[in-house]
Amino acid sequence: MSRPEPAQLIVLPTVYRRSPVKAALVSLRPRQWSKNLLVLAGIVFAAKIGDWVRWSEAAAALAAYCAASSAGYLVNDVRDAEADRLHPGKRDRPIARGELSARAALGLAAVLAVSALGITAVLGPVSMLFLAGFLALQGVYSLGLKHVVLVDVFMIGALFVIRAAAGAEAVRVRISPWLLLCTALLALFLALAKRRGELVLVGAQATPGRAVLQGYSLQLVDQLIAVVASSTVIAYSLYTFTAHSRAMMMTIPFVLFGIFRYLLLIHRHDLGEEPERLLFSDRPILLTVALWSITAATILALTT
Hints:
Low-confidence stretches: 1-14
Distance between the termini: 89 Å
CATH architecture of the largest domain: Orthogonal Bundle
CATH class of the largest domain: Mainly Alpha
Number of helices: 12
Structural class: mainly alpha
Helix content: 55-70%
Largest sheet: none
Number of strands: 0
CATH topology of the largest domain: Tetracycline Repressor, domain 2
Number of domains: 2
Shape: globular
Order of helices and strands: HHHHHHHHHHHH
Strand content: under 5%
C-alpha cells in the first residue's frame, strides 16, 4: 500500500498595496523624465558646456519641465483610470488601482504646475510662456486630442519641440531650426512606433486599447513610420551640412544605426509601446547614443 502524498501548502499571493507617498511618486512617472533631457540640447549644441551660469539655468528649466510633465501624467491617469484597469500593463498604475485618489492626484498636479510656472518665471517671461504653452498642450491632448487620428502624434511632436525651444530660451542661445525639425520628426517616429506597439498588443491579447487605435492599422502605421524615419535622416543630414562644422557629418552613421536598430526591434520583437523603456534597455541603442554624444560634443568643443 503506497503512502499518501503529504498535503502541499498552497500560498496565495497577497495583493501588494503601495503607501500614498510611494503611489504618488510612481504616478509622477520619473522614468519618463528622460524625455525632458531635450531641454539641455540648446546649451550643448551652442557649445556653452563650460558656462556654469547657463548650466544652472538649464537645470532649472529641466526641473520645471519634469514637474510640468508629471502634472500632465497625473491628469491623464485620472481621465484614463477606468480604461487603464482593463489594460494588461497600465492596470498597475496607482490611480487605476485606487492607491491614489483622483482628488489627491489633481491637487498634486496643480501644485506641480504652479511650481513649474514659478521656476520659469525666474528664467524670464518668454520661458514662462513656453511652459504655459506646454501645460496647455498637455491639457488639450489629455482632454480629447489624443483620440483624434494623426493629430495625436503631431501633438506629441509639438511637445518635444517646445522642450527643445524652451531649453534654448532658458540659456539665451539660438537653436538651429534644423534641430527643431529633427526633434519633431524623431518624436513623430517614436509616437508612431508606440501606436504600432499598442496595435500589436491589442491584436495579440484581445484587450481594449485606445479609442484612437480604431483609426489606425498596422499597414498604415508602418507606412507612416517609413516616411518619418527617412525624413528624419534627411533632415539631420541637412543640419550637419549647414552646421558650424561640417565635421558633424561624422555623426550621421550613428543616427542611421539608431533608427535602423529601433525599426528592427519594433518589427522583429513587436516592441515600441513604451519607447522610454526600449531606448534605455537596449544596449546597442545605448551604445549608439553614447558614441553619438561623445562624437558630437568633441566636434563642437574643437570647432567653436
